Amino acid sequence: MADAGARIELLGPVRLFDGDRVVPIGGPGVKGLLALLALRVGKVVPLEEIIDALWGHDPPATARTIVQGNVSHLRRILRQFGDGPVTEIRTSPPGYQLAAEPERIDVHHARALFDRAVPAPPERAATLLAEALALWQGPALSGVPDSVRAPELAELRLAIHGARVDADLALGRYSELIVELSPIVRGDPLAERTAAQLMRALYHAGRRGEALELYRTVSRATLRTLGMEPGADLRWLHERVLHDDLPAREHAMPPSGAAPSQLPPALPALAGRAADLAWLDGLTGGVAVVSGTAGVGKSALVLWWAHRAAPHFPDGVLFAALHGFDPHHPPAAPGDLLAQFLLGLGVPADEVPEALHERAALYRSTIAGRRMLVVLDDARSAEQVRPLLPPGAGSRTVVTSRSRMEGLAVSDAAQLRVLGTLEPADAVQVIEELAGPADFDLNHALARLCGYLPLALRIAGARLAASPQWTIEGLVAELGNERTRLAALDVTGAEDDGVRAAFDVSFRRLPSELARTLVRLGAVPGRQFGPYLAAAVAEIPVTQARRELRTLTAHSLLTETARDVFAPHDLVRLYLRELAETELSRQERAVVLDRAVRYHQAASDTARRRMLRIVDPLDFTGLVPSDGLPPLRTFDEAQDWFAAEWPTLLAVLNAAYAEARYVEVWRLARVAHTYRVVCPLYEDWLQLVDLGLAAAEAADEPLGQCWMLISRCAIALTFELSQGSLADAERAVELAGKLPESRSLAVARIHLGSVLTLLGRYAEATACLLETAAEAEQAGDLELRGQALNNCAETEKRAGRPVEAIGHELASLEIDRELGDDSYAVVSMNNLAELYLDIGELDTAQRYATEAVSLAVTRQFELQEGILRVTLARILQAKLALEPARAEYDRAIALYERMHPRRLEALKKEAAELGQGLPEPPPPVPE
């Protein structure tokens, strides 16, 4: 009997289990969604990535809705599970996150077994790896749409199988391996690693002739198919078998003095890194570069791997510390490194040439034809590395560097691997190796504050282990303060070995123009930036800014998290902030902030004009030249810009407020407010508007106070919050009446009428709105007339006069269509659908609701889509189409969980009442 609780299988048919019971979940789309979330358990999978994976480049117009409905369906199923670890799907913008124990998902269990097998002796490793292979129940991800692909699963199985065969070879299980591997190689003679393993098994089983014939078979296949000889590893093995000098136990170290063995000690344990080790294992010769930010564990990974791989290089291992980014040493000269290698290869000191080119020539001659591993640690540049590369196909070179060394990929076909930070569980393991077990939540908090960066984790663990007076609670508190975090990660008595010092070396060795840009980015609030913002704050062209950001990424100081979105590691961000405070004067930092504010004002104003009809007098589009702004040509581009830039925009707002830049704050808050009108998140919107209003009041600007009060009324109306809304609306009208232009007064009166409607004062509301509509018609202002009529229709509806409401709403919809404004049109069509439902004209109601849903989905109006689906559900319920009605409620709930949590419980209750007497659970959303 399996443990209770959810288990997920992906290595074969995609299945969900409750203990040992298979739980039906639905068709390919639902299974594909579950697989996508389970593959990245604990991480947020963006909704757009889910859509791309499920439908490729041709998703249906309702793709977002289908996904949201299927998420709701899976949640209902998971809520019914029995005792056991809680598994749930969380909404976490911009997508969804599966919260579950990784080892209850077969893929992650297989990786964990692989990771445990890496340092284990052969017998234990063989057992663990066989257990991992047994998890495959057929082709991975069976039963999901063809567009859902995870090629890494095939790579994982190959890596596990190859490692298990290596362990069996070390245990002398040659006969069993010959039986197992022969059909695999016959089926795929291009699988060189498997062919090499079979050759070894044949040779050690006394079947040398068959091993040589196997090589000839593989060689013919590669020549015929690829037009080239087999790889370096297989050619070397063939030569050894041909000369009958393959060691009986290849995993034994060569006799002392027979070959250089220069590797420094490795860490006693290596947390995580299974995928990176598998990548290193899969290298077939030539040059490999492992790069990453300072302290990410590049050297630790490569040394750990090199010690394990050393027996495969019988002619020895050379190691050199190149000091490319060492705070204690200048970068090592290639000539000195060549002399070190020549001495290690047995060349007498008096025979080492003086000239660099002569040393390089002697090195190449000495190492030619040998099978050696060369590890070059902490390289500064490709030029420092190239003279040290061994010739021939039998040797392998692995380089570590903070630079990506893309030049080596071009000139020497180097394979590149960028090393990331550790997974949370692996990061906690690093701390516990040094400091011992501690409270689960505190250890995870400490790992998070260390940014999952191995150097920071080891410093924190060592500090706890070496200083009994320090508690984990105290260290978490110290690291929790961003102002003291880097100081807490210095090494006592050796500050040059701390996190700050590691970053400082990277910065000090940058070219001056890159350093200048990076310092200014350090003065920008927020956690990410793009080329347009970088260009604005550094006063450089956008093309230069993009080039510099990508160069800084190549130096591992930034990461390009999405196209044209760059972010430093969290500890690097704190270092850059400190750097800006020391390298720039207060006045210079103020100038950078001012440029960031102006950029966001101009870009936000441009974006909002692509999203809604704008009726207020603020216009900041000319603050930045047009070539300095992102090309926001469509509604979707504007919405995507706001979504990506929102965290930085809020950070800039708060920083400007702290610097008493009150006028800039309320103006930016006003133009950014439009995004939350279209995609409202209550807390975000309220924070923005309250900050803007406080700034306008501090600046004593009536115009700002008026418009921010109007914004606050919009929040009240969207979320139906009556408290304080009338006072805000009346104050806005009072302020607008003293302004020289009339549009502000009209907009304020429209909001006053809507607030009066919310309060049930219908006669006052109707009089106010109709008067405003008449004045707008007289002034020839279609936008304001349309808004006033729309709001008047809502008032008449709530007052119980649906026929009058329909008349106003049809007039408003006509204006919306004349102006081409989809955002207002969906509101008008929803209102018409509700009104026709009220008077019993169900077919007309359904026609308006369906058309509006389609438009809302196309334009990604998520809140309006949720409202419309509730309307459509009620219409379908009235037509006794209960199953389609339930589906619409489910889709609406999925939207409301993110967009409108305050109405969620009432909506769930309404949906539950509809479902009385219907079977549970309901079927998944049709695909």
UniProtKB/TrEMBL annotation:
Source species, domain of life: Bacteria
Keyword Transcription regulation part of the UniProt annotation: yes
Protein name (database record): DNA-binding SARP family transcriptional activator
Keywords: DNA-binding, Transcription, Transcription regulation
All copies of domain OmpR/PhoB-type, residue ranges: 1-100
Protein's UniProt keywords contain Disulfide bond: no
DNA-binding region, residue range(s): 1-100
Upper lineage: Bacteria, Bacillati, Actinomycetota, Actinomycetes, Pseudonocardiales
